[in-house]
Amino acid sequence: MKTLGIVRETKNKWERRTPLNPQAVKKLVKKGYRVMIQSSEIRIYKDVEYQEVGAEITENLSECDLILAVKEITIPNIISGVPHLFFSHTIKGQDYNMPLLQHFLDTKTTLFDYEKIVDEHGRRLVFFGKFAGNAGMIETLWGLGQRLKKEFGIETPFLDLKHAYEYKTVQNAIDHFQIIGEEIERNGLPSEITPLNIFMMGYGHVSQGAQEILSTLPIVMIDPENLSSQQNDYSNHEVYLSIFKEKHMVERMDGGAFDLLDYFQNGTEYVSKMEKYLDHCSVYVNAIYWEAGYPVFLSTESLAKLKKILIIGDITCDINGSVQATVKTTYPDKPIYIFDANTQNITGELTGKGVAVCAVDNLPCEFAKESSDTFSEALSPLLAKMLNADYAKELADMTLPEEIKTACITHQGKLQQDFRYLQEFLPSKK
Fold first, then answer.
1. What is the pTM of this model?
2. Which CATH class is domain 129-361?
3. Peptide bond into 195 cis (omega under 30)
4. pLDDT digits (tens, 9 = 90+) for 257-299
């Protein structure tokens, strides 16, 4: 009998998500699989709910044939020789997780990463992105309301917003935002902050989740190229949203024509052209995938010159990434810090000189149940084949679906072909 294990999440007290809900576990048990789960006091589903569907609650997962988590598992809790699947946060060569990656190699343990489970077009199949967008947009606008009041004495309808985790469901949040939107339509926004221009960087799942929240407001879409002319034609009763695609954001260093595929393949040959738009930005929402070496879109130097920008919602949350003001992560109950671009000092309060930054790195946990249910539904169909695979074989010879093979970072003590670039980031090579 093949056995699946689910570890308790230990990232922080907010990480209440689970990769599989009780309904998915019940289906596995009915198919003849054994499911073992470490006890957790914070998981959105209680231990007893898993026991009722046939799972075993235990500390020891050494008998498992596959182990699941959501976020990184600490090195002492990795079970050598047993394949693991979780968000490893290693594929960008993240320095803080290179010891973890090295441990998988040293112990010849197989590591899969959800982020690389993709279809033939490179589209992710198992993700939390929509809920990151939902929560990130809520926290950003909560921060906007608080910042305006506490630092500038400006009251807006956004002051009535709650943290994302304080809403029972996404729909509850949407219902409240609709009330906020109606108030903006009726009474308008203070002239000191209008036109209120929201810049949305990206258009994928994260962006779509953020846009779902924004759609409840009196939104007017404005093409980035029309931002300059907007300054003489706007309404205080509207909120303006610009969606930035790669064609707006970058240009080739050599002056050649922009090509999307070329940018994806050779991003280091492009530079940002965001400077032409940033003077119009009130709220900067970062919802794009980014890798080291690609253009920085909101630099510290640029930020020091900007007068209109009020808050940055860095949903992607790459530390020292495309937004250089993102120098640390925050937590759902205190999502905002203030960054002074001139001194590069930060304060943890909502007051002080600088720009507000929202940088919560595990936003979907604020809607733990809904995000876990959606994730579980996407992941479940893949598990039987992963459990039944023969991990003694080379990856190419295994009966795993191609979308799972592409997500295999380490196997039998080696970085797999698509991840050999990580060799230069490993501790043993420094």
1. 0.92
2. alpha beta
3. yes
4. 999 999 999 999 999 999 999 999 999 999 998 988 899 999 9
